[in-house]
Amino acid sequence: MDAFHSQHQKHKKRLTQDQVRLLETSFDHGKKLEPERKLHLARELGVPPRQVAIWYQNKRARWKTQNLELDYNVIRVRLEHALIEKRRLERDVIRLQGELEKAHEMLHALNYANPNPPPIVSTVLSSTSCDEGGSTLGNNEEFQFEKLYASLMGVDGSNWV
What we know:
Largest sheet: none
Order of helices and strands: HHHHHH
Shape: rod-shaped
Oligomer: single chain
Strand content: under 5%
Structural class: mainly alpha
């Protein structure tokens, strides 16, 4: 270290709580330290402007780290909620696939048991496919299927099974 820096280090004093409070208040009003503000704070605190600048630099680094930690925690909580929602939706898909399979089995059983099923059953049977858990129903057929399903399940009181 050269003579200037070693001499400067000897005279550098630790900031008091009041000085730190003033710097904290100043930092809360602006994270960027303008040269005029640096000189004003140094005079007010009775410390070299370089000490004020270093304090600001360190404070900004701590502030950024704290913000990153907060952002990380927010993202982590959002991810946890998204994973919970994903698991809930996966359970719903499995449950709905089971209901769909049961409905298809009922439709096929009805078609086998009743050679002249109501028109809605014929329409649904002729327009559904269950490849890979999916359905190729159009909007009208979906409505008819829902109506049939509700009827088969006795939801609307017109259970004809």
